[in-house]
Design brief:
246 residues; mainly alpha; Ferritin; 10 helices; globular; binds fe (ii) ion
């Protein structure tokens, strides 16, 4: 379980030194580029998955729906981490396979940490806004969906890891667009400073608009990493600012 970060703690330090984005990245410009970029062509399975979420929580993107996305987002990375360790059990004597498995374990770990922070940000905003949540719809049901998704993700990571990467790329692409839309549909977020200690640790000195823009951009990184893992480098979405992309 994560401990409370010290006030002003750097998010990159909390994530083991991993720098998710270049310094000075223009979050508003990146949000515009997410909105302008068409969504990936989702497979039937992915479309069914997103349709199910809409069925339960509605098409409108709300904080409880964002919370569901984040409860689910960590799951495939955990499945990859387990798969990586499983591979190590059998392939530890092969230097090349060992390195590949360790790389998968590391990606799984740091991505899970990052997704956990997203969940914390949503929970902080829900708490701040005093959003009323029902025990069934907003706690029990997400857990039930998470359990089903965990079974699916674990199976896919065992049976066909490449498909697991691709499914996750679609999940992350969907999340990136949903967050970009959420900020667009709620301009009041840009007038609300994110003052909680947790928010200050994730995105120091930001408004809630920029917190969610940053989350959206994190999802783009996750999307791109998943696409690279399944050999689809051509679909990687770069930063809008070419200088930052370098
Ligand atoms: Fe996320
Ligand atoms: Fe993500």
């Amino acid at each position: 379980m994560a401990t409370m970060p010290e006030a002003g703690a750097n998010m990159n330090e909390l994530l083991g030194g991993r720098d998710l984005h270049p310094a000075g990245v223009d979050l508003a410009r990146e949000q515009a580029s997410s909105l302008a970029r068409p969504r990936m062509r989702y497979t039937l399975a992915a479309r069914f998955f997103f349709w199910s979420m809409d069925l339960v929580y509605g098409k409108t993107i709300t904080l409880p729906k964002v919370k569901l996305i984040e409860v689910l987002a960590r799951i495939p990375y955990h499945a990859w981490e387990i798969r990586g360790y499983w591979n190590l059990t059998f392939q530890y004597h092969d230097a090349g396979k060992r390195a590949t498995a360790l790389e998968l374990v590391e990606l799984g770990r740091i991505s899970q940490d990052n997704e956990f922070w997203h969940l914390v940000m949503v929970m902080e905003k829900i708490r701040e806004d005093r959003v009323r949540e029902s025990k069934f719809w907003h706690y029990f049901l997400p857990l039930l969906i998470a359990f089903s998704y965990a079974v699916f993700a674990r199976l896919l990571a065992v049976v066909h890891l490449r498909s697991s990467y691709y499914f996750n790329a679609m999940f992350e692409d969907h999340a990136e667009h949903e967050y970009a839309r959420f900020v667009k549909e709620h301009p009041e977020l840009d007038q609300q400073p994110a003052q909680s200690e947790w928010a200050a640790a994730y995105a120091p000195g930001s408004t809630w608009g920029d917190v969610f823009r940053r989350v959206s951009l994190d999802e783009r990184v996750h999307r791109n990493e998943s696409l690279i893992k399944c050999g689809r480098e051509g679909q990687v979405a770069p930063y809008a600012d070419p200088v930052k992309a370098g």
